[in-house]
Design a protein that fits this description.
The protein has 420 residues and is of the alpha/beta class. The protein folds into two domains: 3-30 and 320-416, Aspartate Aminotransferase, domain 1 (Alpha-Beta Complex), CATH 3.90.1150; 46-317, Type I PLP-dependent aspartate aminotransferase-like (Major domain) (Aspartate Aminotransferase, domain 2), CATH 3.40.640. The protein has helices at 3-6, 33-36, 45-57, 69-82, 93-110, 131-134, 140-143, 170-188, 213-224, 277-283, 302-317, 320-334, 336-339, 365-375, 397-416, and strands at residues 12-16, 19-22, 27-30, 86-90, 118-122, 154-156, 192-197, 201-202, 208-209, 228-232, 256-259, 271-275, 344-350, 353-358, 378-379, 386-389. Strand 8 and strand 9 (208-209) form a beta hairpin. Helix 14 packs across helix 15. It is globular, with a radius of gyration of 22 Å. It starts with a helix and ends with a helix. Pyridoxal-5'-phosphate binds at residues 92-94, 97, 126-128, 198, 203-204, 232, 234-235, 260.
């Protein structure tokens, strides 16, 4: 709040496609899809039309004892895409994490393994900031103040490919990290319910990318040690990494899959946890206490489900995964000058996520870069010294060029102020 005295929040009047229209007449390209949610830019007419139609029929109905077409159809379609046939809905990513963790621990309780209620995650993992989700979010700043409230999960090394030593490649880092996971599970499997991770890209800790081999090895280890594998695809699902779900690149299936953010194309809040028949069956009982207990007023909200259905339609109609291949290449080309900047290290790209690290000791680099980019009509918010671009999937050629130029110029301008 104090910062806002010198940097007031930008008042936004409207938004259309990738462009945000500010009250002062300034136009800014949304280079981070508004925290990774607006997959097709803002106000996509097809999603708007679906929502208008839904508003005329049914706004909301509680899902306890009632059901409706959008939630049934969405569950069927997500189940086909993920090969996980059971869905539980909430409204935000952190709640999806809570649900997956609770469901995993409750599963073990229902099958008589009462000691299995602890969790393990990756170093630098981010899974939301509610008290339960903070247990597996390994970002010191977010959990320091709340640590006494949290039953902290265990942390194993991240397979972040940037940790490669001389002569090592991303695959070798993945193997090394999996060996640490193996030692952990060997000792702790008796009380570990689940391993939770963000597949392929740990976004919030600075777009740390890793080799899919880690996911294969983690799957094998979880099977061997009877530990659930929870994939948090809240940020990387829905085509962001090039495949519809990131874990597809490892050819594996998780026990729980958490989705949110892009699920409604950024129109309405919605999240879902998908799971297996085996988990479902452990809760199938006459006793309410053996059922999964997580009452949420807005669960399966019809409007949000309808927006999600329209989003899935757009994937098919616009052949998104295919067209994104070309778009991702042109984004990579447009950002090549930034990648080659003398102060830039580790430039990397996976599908529609591009990132690089800037060598600078400057305090407040992220803030300064953000302001310089905004001046140039581009919304980017570096994480520490990591500049990243995670744009909407519908961009004109000129938009892509704009991203390339503004991202580069903003860095030059930021570094000019280095000694101020
Ligand atoms: C991987 C991941 N999990 C969970 C969350 C939390 O989602 P929400 O902000 O909707 O609670 C985020 C948000 O950035 C995320 O990136």
């Amino acid at each position: 709040m104090k910062k806002h005295e010198s940097q007031p929040p930008v008042a936004v009047y409207g938004a259309n496609g990738p462009w945000i229209l500010c009250e002062d007449g300034h136009k800014v390209l949304d280079g981070v899809s508004s925290w990774w949610v607006n997959l097709f830019g803002h106000s996509h007419p097809y999603i708007k039309e679906a929502l208008t139609d839904q508003l005329e029929r049914l706004d909301h109905i509680m899902l306890a004892g009632f059901t409706h077409e959008p939630v049934v159809e969405l569950s069927e379609r997500l189940s086909k895409l993920s090969r996980l046939g059971h869905a539980f809905y909430a409204s935000d990513g952190a709640s999806a994490t809570e649900i997956a963790l609770k469901m995993s621990a409750h599963y073990w309780r229902n099958v008589g393994r009462l000691c299995k209620y602890r969790f393990v995650g990756l170093a630098g993992g981010y899974h939301g900031e509610t008290v339960g989700a903070l247990a597996v979010t390994d970002i010191a700043l977010f959990r320091q103040a709340y640590a006494p409230l949290v039953q902290l999960g265990a942390v194993v090394p991240s397979p972040d490919a940037r940790q490669a030593g001389p002569g090592e490649n991303a695959e070798a880092v993945a193997r090394r990290a999996a060996t640490s996971l193996e030692s952990f599970l060997e000792k702790n499997h008796a009380d570990t319910a689940a391993l939770i991770l963000e597949p392929l890209v740990q976004c919030a800790s600075g777009m740390a990318m890793y080799h899919p081999l880690y996911l294969q090895l983690a799957r094998e280890l979880c099977d061997r040690y009877e530990v659930h594998l929870v994939m948090d695809e809240i940020a990387v699902g829905f085509g962001r990494t090039g495949t519809f779900f990131a874990h597809e690149q490892a050819g594996i299936r998780p026990d729980f899959l958490c989705l949110s953010k892009g699920i409604t194309g950024g129109m309405l809040p919605l999240s879902v946890v998908l799971t297996t028949d085996a988990v479902y069956e452990a809760f199938y009982d006459d006793a309410t206490a053996r059922g999964f207990l997580h009452s949420h007023s807005y669960t399966g909200n019809p409007l949000a489900c309808r927006a999600a259905l329209a989003t899935l339609d757009l994937f098919e109609r616009l052949n998104v995964l295919e067209t994104n291949k070309t778009l991702a290449q042109s984004i990579g080309r447009a950002l090549e000058p930034l990648a080659q900047h003398s102060r830039v290290r580790n430039h990397r790209q996976l599908g529609m996520i591009w990132a690089c690290d800037v060598e600078s000791e400057m305090t407040g680099f992220s803030d300064r870069y953000h302001r310089e980019a905004m001046k140039r009509g581009l919304l980017l918010r570096p994480i520490g010294n990591t500049i990243y671009v995670m744009p909407p999937y519908l961009l004109e050629k000129a938009d892509v060029e704009h991203i390339g130029h503004a991202a580069y110029d903003a860095l030059s301008a930021t570094l000019k102020g280095e000694n101020e």
